[in-house]
Amino acid sequence: MKEKILLPFTAFILLTSIVGCSTGTTTNQDVSRENQVTAHDHNLNEQENVEEQKERTEKQIHDNSIDFKGVKLPKEAMELFDTAVNDAKADASNVEPLFKELLSWLEKNASASIGFYMNYIEINKMLGYPEDTHPYELLKILNNDLLKNPDEVTNKEFKNKLIMIANNGLMFRTAEGDFEPTINFGYLLDKYDDILSEEMKEYLQIRASNSNIYDEESIIASYSQLAKNVIDVERFLTKYNESDMRTVVKNIYANVLASYLLAGQTKAEMKTIYESFLEEYHGSETHAYMIIDDFYKLLRENNFKYNDEVYKYINITIDQVR
Questions:
Q1: How many beta carbons lie within 10 A of that of residue 278, not counting itself?
Q2: pTM for this one?
Q3: What is the pLDDT of residues 34-67, one digit of tens each?
Q4: In this model, does residue 149 exceed pLDDT 90?
Q5: Rounded distance between C-alpha atoms, residue 124 and residue 119, angstroms
Q6: Where in the chain are the domains?
Q7: Total Cβ atoms within 10 A of residue 41
Q8: DSSP per residue, 170-182
Q9: DSSP, residue by residue, 48-115
């Protein structure tokens, strides 16, 4: 590419030199053109310097990739990440490979590293709560209150577990009443906000917003939050259509959209949920808006009842967006 750019200017310099020798004079136009050539060559040199610096930085990052051998806790993994970034002297645009290594390790090891698996009945007993406290109500208490203020817990064994989970940047998730630690994406976003790219920060926000919002039994998030998540995830996919995190985000989109399409239980509830969506996001020019608009019309035709026709629409739609 550079040869194609340089060749015409090189030919021009030679031609100017020949004409100058034959006439024995130099015009203002000749000087101006020579200055343009000099400036152009200077810009090319600057570009080469930038590219060389980028190559050196990428090599530095590769040489400082994180060795997770022997690492047992998320906190230790994050400390290794911090050291690797400092050693590589990488700026925000070059931190991503290292951060993705950290994220991959956390995805695979965060839960098992703490060794905490308890049923909600056991936790209710330890905390002195009624046995019938619902798992999702308990989840909110654990993540929103007790992890931030573990000193409120009188049971020493459980208090120490909470402190360990909080200190390692984790939170709780639940499935069918069983609790275990998982990645706290909001914690990672806050901790590394200054060094991550906008794409990675938006990715972490999506993961944080969609952590444990649905399960086989019920949906934890409010319907308005679920609707917002649908729109936000789609906008990420549109904005970053070449993202290497696209596959993960598409699966999130399919899951959160499916949850939203199955949100209503009664006719009044369905009307409220989907009419609110169509009013809130009218003019958003999103695919999700068209899906919900068609879905609402189908529900209305079927007297707001889930039947074979409605379920077929949901299954086809989810298959198409996945």
A1: 12
A2: 0.76
A3: 555 555 555 555 566 666 655 654 555 555 578 8
A4: yes
A5: 9
A6: 1-63, 72-212, 222-322
A7: 12
A8: EEEEEETTEEEEE
A9: HHHHHHHHHHHHHHHHT----TT--SHHHHHHHHHHHHHHHT--GGG-HHHHHHHHHHHHHHHHHHHT
